């Protein structure tokens, strides 16, 4: 299957190719547990994730920088009030865009080729990536719009960490760098161009070192064979029992003891 901007997010492309977002569905991140059953339900078209306002605001900013904002607005009329004005959340997106555009260095990193699609056979399956700003022979840049940039995220097993590790954006960097390398022979540095949704939007350009990306790529290589087996129906998926899909499809079999309500704290 030849990928284009029109079919990149299609169900057919998702079944044939593995992407970073699909990988995270199957394997999770430190900040978001995986559900293999939900991941397969999404692939089969039996479950759709909710389009949250937070995700839509990020998509609004993405659409601006890739030059498709007019199309985004036409496809999402619910971002406007009945009077035809942008809702408050999307006025904030405009503030973020304006803040980004008055920073010369940020805009230099965002000046590459937009939404470049690349594919590569890796670890037994074809992968697909779509790069926000590709600067050949220089850098791979991904744009992120976050609630905050310097907030310390916390989990019991890992302690405090930054949003990059918490949401697995280092996994994304590892896959993007490797796919570009397999297409061009160039192992380019990976950067997150980040902006926040705070009252006063914050901005940062964040470099993830190659040695850390190599560690994450080994992790991806280790996990991918099971994903291939799951997509091929060779193994049964594990149900997390916590996500919205599991709540929606839950069938009660017996009462539980009250001590089971918290699970593993």
The shape, in one word, is: globular
The CATH topology, please? Answer: Lambda Exonuclease, Chain A
Q: Give the radius of gyration.
A: 20 Å
The profile of the biggest β sheet is: 5 strands, mixed
Write down the CATH class: Alpha Beta
Q: Report the order of strands and helices.
A: HHHHHHHEEEEEHHEEHH
Distance between the termini: 45 Å
CATH architecture: Alpha-Beta Complex
Return the structural class: alpha+beta
Quickly count the domains.
1
Give the DSSP E fraction (strand runs of 2 or more residues).
15-25%
Strand tally is 7
List the strand order in the largest sheet.
1-2-3-6-7
Give a verbal description of the structure.
By secondary structure, the protein is α+β, with helices and mostly antiparallel strands. It has one domain (11-49, 103-260): Lambda Exonuclease, Chain A (Alpha-Beta Complex), CATH 3.90.320. It contains eleven helices and seven strands. The strands form two sheets. A five-stranded mixed beta sheet has the order 1-2-3-6-7. It has a two-stranded antiparallel sheet with strand order 4-5. Helix 2 (20-27) packs antiparallel against helix 3 (36-43), helix 4 runs antiparallel to helix 5 (69-75) and helix 9 (169-184) packs across helix 10 (210-231). The termini are far apart. The mean pLDDT is 95.
């Amino acid at each position: 299957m030849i990928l284009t901007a029109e079919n990149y997010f299609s169900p057919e492309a998702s079944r044939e190719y593995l992407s970073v977002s699909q990988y995270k569905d199957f394997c999770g991140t430190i900040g978001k547990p995986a559900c293999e059953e939900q991941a397969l339900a999404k692939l089969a078209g039996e479950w759709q994730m909710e389009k949250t306002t937070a995700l839509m605001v990020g998509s609004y900013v993405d659409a601006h920088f890739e030059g498709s904002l007019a199309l985004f607005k036409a496809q999402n009329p619910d971002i406007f009030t009945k009077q035809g004005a942008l809702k408050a959340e999307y006025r904030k997106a405009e503030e973020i865009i304006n803040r980004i555009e008055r920073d010369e260095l940020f805009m230099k990193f965002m000046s590459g080729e937009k939404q470049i699609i690349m594919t590569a056979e890796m670890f037994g399956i074809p992968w697909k990536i779509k790069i926000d700003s590709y600067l050949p022979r220089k850098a791979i840049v991904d744009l992120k719009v976050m609630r905050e940039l310097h907030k310390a995220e916390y989990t019991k097993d890992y302690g405090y960490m930054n949003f990059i590790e918490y949401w697995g954006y280092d996994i994304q960097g590892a896959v993007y760098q490797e796919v570009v390398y397999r297409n061009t022979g160039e192992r380019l540095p990976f950067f997150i161009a980040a902006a926040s949704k705070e009252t006063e939007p914050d901005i940062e350009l964040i470099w993830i070192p190659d040695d850390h990306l190599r560690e994450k790529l080994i992790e991806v290589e280790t996990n991918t064979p099971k994903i291939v087996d799951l997509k091929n129906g060779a193994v049964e998926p594990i149900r997390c029992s916590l996500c919205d899909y599991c709540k929606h499809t839950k069938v009660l079999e017996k009462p539980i003891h009250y001590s089971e309500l918290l699970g593993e704290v």
